[in-house]
Design brief:
globular
């Protein structure tokens, strides 16, 4: 299973903040410091607060994550994730050959 660790800098051991991810592929950092994780096993997008380890499911039922190809390394077609300066998340959908846009909720 996949995991995310935070590196505090030289001389510090990595600190594990999230475990049990199923086929994590894409990562991005939002302007507020949260980490976006595309978890292709369940087809969802998680938001992780690296300071607390708290996660929120931002979207689920997403068309991401192709089946592995025999003889190839797992995740040979990774899911790309990017974050815009306003907190908009862009996610590549390998199953639909498209780009998905998730806008932050209005305050």
């Amino acid at each position: 299973a996949g995991a995310i660790s935070v590196l505090a800098g030289p001389g510090h051991a990595p600190r594990r903040v999230l475990e049990g991810l199923v086929k994590p592929e894409g990562l991005a950092v939002l302007p507020d410091g949260r980490i976006v994780v595309a978890e292709t096993g369940p087809g969802r997008l998680l938001l992780l607060d690296p300071g607390t380890g708290h996660t929120v499911t931002a979207a689920q039922g997403l068309p991401i994550g192709l089946a592995d190809i025999p003889g190839q390394a797992p995740g040979v077609f990774p899911t790309g994730v990017a974050a815009g300066p306003d907190g908009t998340i862009y996610l590549s959908s390998d199953r639909e050959s498209s780009v998905l846009r998730l806008r932050p909720a209005a305050p």
